[in-house]
Every structure is written in C-alpha cells, then in structure tokens.
Design brief:
5 helices; mainly alpha; about 55% helix; three-stranded antiparallel sheet; Arc Repressor Mutant, subunit A; globular
C-alpha cells in the first residue's frame, strides 16, 4: 500500500509572479475599487472623480489613476483644448475586472452585519 501524500499547499511568493501580491493587492487598496466603480458608468474628468470619492486627496487620486492606467484598467485621454481636458475611462480589462469586484461588494453588503457582530464579539473578548 502506498502512503497517501498530503496535497501541496500553495505558497505565496514575495515576487511579481504572485497574483495576490501583484494584482489583488493593487486593486484592494483603499481607493482603487472606488475609482473603478466611479468609472463604470462612463468617462469622467479628474475633478468629477475627486468630488464623487469623498476623502481622497488630489495627490492620492493622481497616483491611483496612474497605477490603474499602468496596469491597463484605465485609459487617460488628453483633449488638446484650451484649457486642456483630460478624461479617464475603464478599458476592456477594467470593465472585466469590475464584474467580480461587484460580486465581492455585494457579498460584503450582504454580510456586513455578521462581520460587525464578529468584530464586536472579538473586541469584547480582548
């Protein structure tokens, strides 16, 4: 009789090949998902985004938009007008990403009370 081996557990490497570190951590930051959801209905200008996402600083919005553009989720279009007009919109990849993120947000909304109760119970034990 051969001895059964335990299934190998996944190792999350600290490098760019790890999808959790490389992709999920970026979109799971404080602002990225909010920006992506703000762009679901179509393109937006910078100030319109800033006014829709309460609490985000101009610097943080700029940096997060750059990161989302770099990863291919957002397109930045500059219109040669006076004054210059810049609009941001989801790419096909960004639109595709928003679908599972929406499921996560729905899950969070459906389980929010359970999570609050679990946190309260944990905090009371501490």
């Amino acid at each position: 009789m051969a001895k059964e081996t335990k299934l190998e557990r996944r190792v999350f490497h600290n490098n760019s090949d790890c999808p959790v570190r490389n992709v999920v951590a970026q979109i799971g930051d404080k602002w990225s998902m909010l920006i992506l959801f703000a762009l679901v209905d179509g393109s937006e200008r910078f100030n319109a985004l800033k006014s829709r996402i309460e609490g985000i600083s101009q610097r943080m919005l700029t940096q997060t938009l750059r990161d989302l553009e770099r990863d291919g989720y957002v397109n930045r279009t500059v219109y040669p007008e006076v004054p210059v007009r810049v609009e941001y919109e989801l790419t096909e990849l960004g639109s595709d990403l928003v679908k599972p993120l929406y499921e996560l947000v729905c899950w969070a909304d459906n389980h929010q009370q359970e999570i609050k109760q679990a946190r309260k119970a944990y905090d009371e034990k501490s």
